[in-house]
Amino acid sequence: MAQKMTNVNPAGNRTVPDFGKMYYVKGVISLPSYEIEEPFEAWYDFEGNRSRIDYYNGTTRTFLIGNDLDYGAIYQIKPVLPPSDIKCFQLKGTKEEPIRPQSAMPDVQGFEFEKMEDCKGAQCEVWKTITEAGHKKNTYRLWVTRPEGNDAPATPHRFEMEGFNTLLDSHNDKYSIEYSDFSSQTEPDVFTPPAGFTCEEFPDPPEQHQILANPIQDYVSTNPVSHAHRMFGPFKEKFNRQYKSEEEHQEREINFVQSFRFVNSTNRKGLSFTVGINKRADWSRAETRKSKIPLVI
């Protein structure tokens, strides 16, 4: 179904925030449904056609190099079992989907100014947009500050998504990103992947390669149908899922998306074990606790 975008409360002659063509920023991705707090650092160089994002204090490092190979490439350096092993995985761009630098902030085109609000001891501009697809209605808000005159890059403070399902008449999805230490300067050598690795393709299934290689893409996108949502189809096929009603289908999809995010975030930590999607990935947290069976293995 076609995506619909709703603009909200335009105000005066304000221009949407601009974060500049080069920056460094820290952040924490928060997933309340699974008590996940995932720290990251991001470096972005638009003119150099490259970016880098590290997760869990550099445990997993991703390099997006648009000028490599024919259509760019993503390199991910991460620990694998046993934990002492470090490997490089590679995702090559294609003519249809070339690799581009990945921003740690959302694309604010389509956002509208909503209000001024105190945040972190400063007066922040709050920008908002709403997207709809099917029964999914997502509200996105971005909090920023910027110098008088708008002649310098804006500073991001918070980005939040709250999802509402019109069929279930309930808020069912929420995550946020808290930003800090924003700077318009970065060192060029941070974009060079470490030497000494022979990179291999990401493990199967192939449909997960994009989200494994570029995890933050889904969080800063304002498309209500994310890569995580698109993984629900293969899950249903693999485990022969058939639901009794559209309402149950919607609930199970929500549960699956949250489980999928939890699995991938956990595996970026470099623990002594990994987790994966199993047949209970569409269960609710309450069902999992009641059964006393692990959600994922």
TrEMBL record:
Q: Which organism is it from?
A: Danio rerio
Record protein name field: Si:dkey-228a15.1
- The Cathepsin propeptide inhibitor domain sits at 232-288
Taxonomy of origin reads: Eukaryota, Metazoa, Chordata, Craniata, Vertebrata
Gene transcribed to yield this protein? si:dkey-228a15.1
Name a Pfam family for this protein.
Answer: Inhibitor_I29
The protein's matches in InterPro entries, at most eight in alphabetical order, are given as: Papain-like_cys_pep_sf (IPR038765), Prot_inhib_I29 (IPR013201)
